[in-house]
Design goal:
Blueprint (H helix, E strand, L loop, with lengths): L2 H20 L26 E11 L6 E10 L4 E8 L1 H4 L10 E8 L2 E5 L4 H4 L3 E5 L2 H18 L2 H10 L3 E10 L2 E14 L2 E11 L5 E12 L2 E12 L15 E3 L2 H10 L11 E2 L2 E2 L1
Amino acid sequence: MSRTNTRLLATVGVAGALALGATAAVAGAAGASPAGARATTRAAGRVATTSFSFSVAVSGLAPSAVTVTGSGQADFRNDSVALSVDVPAGAAKLIPGGSATPEVINAVETGGTVYLEVPNLASMVGKPWISVALPAKAKTTGKGALSKVAGALGDVSAIAQFAQSHNASVTPLKGEVVNGVPSTGTQIVAKLSHNGGSSTVTATLWADSSDRLVQANVAASGALKAGTVGVNATVNFTDYDGPVTITAPPASEVRAISLSTVEAFLGKFHLGGRQLAGRQLGGRHL
């Protein structure tokens, strides 16, 4: 796989994480920070569950922007998340085993195991789903991250307060109705330096009267050797503390894959030849 394709896949993946998590974690430990000055109708605190939808567009790594959309649910009480991602043809063909047709990828993380349903991988592994058991350290880190996100989603003022204390520019916005919800807006702009380059991240956060995040818009741009890369992401949150259904797929539909095998697969896969350099995955030679 060329370096450009590898960067594109990595950027799309990171952008998805950015849309879903980094907005709430702009402040790092914001979920544990004291609430800001904004008056709310309830005490800020962790949310238990939420549903969400998102759209992520990446430009600068391909002739045209690549946009990925999807939806999902999160159950912070049980450290579980489920996603359904609509991958366009331009990105789907970069997935191992993929073709230049749109693809829907489903993902579930529950009980310390990640489950992935990637249609183009099914013929390779012999099952609709693959599963990867996370190592103990990753489980602990994941739980901690979800806990922070749960806190930040229910305390948007703390995100702004923390960002401001870390030299980001924070600007209150006029109230608007966002997704049918009367909301208060905050814009956060941060400039970052890395590897001799620089990037600017702008986050616009809209909170309801209980200071829970309704919508986050994140725009980031940075200079790479190949040129300027831009990421624009929007995530909408609804149904806070409502019922969610997140379950692992039936065992009969899952092929367990070791983490080391997945890492080898992603590292050695060649886009042109669709080969795994003599490796095997799930007992099937690729």
